[in-house]
Amino acid sequence: MKIVKKKTKTYTYNYITALAALLLVSSSMAYADTRFYVQAGGSVGLLKNDASLKQINGIQPGSYFYNLKSLPLPIIQASIGLDQRLNLPSINLVMGVKIELGYGLGFIPVGDFTNSYKMAGADALFYIGAYRFKLYPFAGIGYERINQALDITPFFTGPILEGMRAQGGFFYEMDDKSAVSLAAIFSKNFEYKPRLSFNYEFKF
């Protein structure tokens, strides 16, 4: 029994030593990278067609749009952000966090009367993936505001929809300066129904 204990202690010591050596080599080959980036793209989701939305959009009783439970809101969006990552090429791993601010303009097509909207939001996104394949799953949380757009400026007046949002998806780096991303966004303003978002990203 004593011999077994000594062998077990020896194996444990060797395992810890090997793991420490691997971490030491990995950390020595790791490097941090901080980049700013801009994004452009679009998203589409469904807003609840309640009484206030019908009034804002001038939807009259008896019309086709009056009986719809939800109305589509396509949005053209842009954002700017900061990407802080840790590259570990020795073990084929990349992890990081993105902080971004976004702004978008959209419209609800309701026949002859089409109303425009603007949206602003902030997000924190966390990602991890394989260094070799340049494909990184991500998830994050954020906050957004939606308002009827009387102009294209990022200033909000009048009735406002606002609340938390969460999202998940992936982005693919085509080269050192550009990437594309696809995500599903779930927010209070859209009753947590999935909203699809696609963006092109340029780093500098």
Q: Which outline best applies? A: elongated
> Separation of termini?
63 Å
> Helical content, roughly?
10-25%
Low-confidence stretches: none
Tell me the major beta sheet.
8 strands, antiparallel, barrel
Mean pLDDT: 85
- If helices are DSSP runs of H or I spanning 4 or more residues, what is the number of helices? 2
Strand content: over 45%
The helix/strand class is alpha+beta
Q: Going across the major beta sheet, what is the strand order?
A: 1-2-3-4-5-6-7-8
Q: Spell out the helices and strands N to C.
A: HEHEEEEEEE
* Total count of strands: 8
Query: What is the radius of gyration computed over CA atoms, rounded to a whole number of angstroms?
Result: 24 Å
Q: Which helices and strands, and how do they pair?
A:
Layout: H1 2-29, E1 31-48, H2 51-56, E2 70-88, E3 93-110, E4 113-129, E5 135-148, E6 160-173, E7 178-187, E8 195-203
Antiparallel strand pairs: 1-2, 1-8, 2-3, 3-4, 4-5, 5-6, 6-7, 7-8
Describe it for me?
The protein is an alpha+beta fold. The chain is 17% helix and 58% strand. It has 2 helices and 8 strands, in the order αβαβββββββ. It has helices at residues 2-29, 51-56, and strands at 31-48, 70-88, 93-110, 113-129, 135-148, 160-173, 178-187, 195-203. An 8-stranded antiparallel barrel has the order 1-2-3-4-5-6-7-8. A hairpin with a 7-residue loop joins strand 7 and strand 8 (195-203). The termini are far apart.
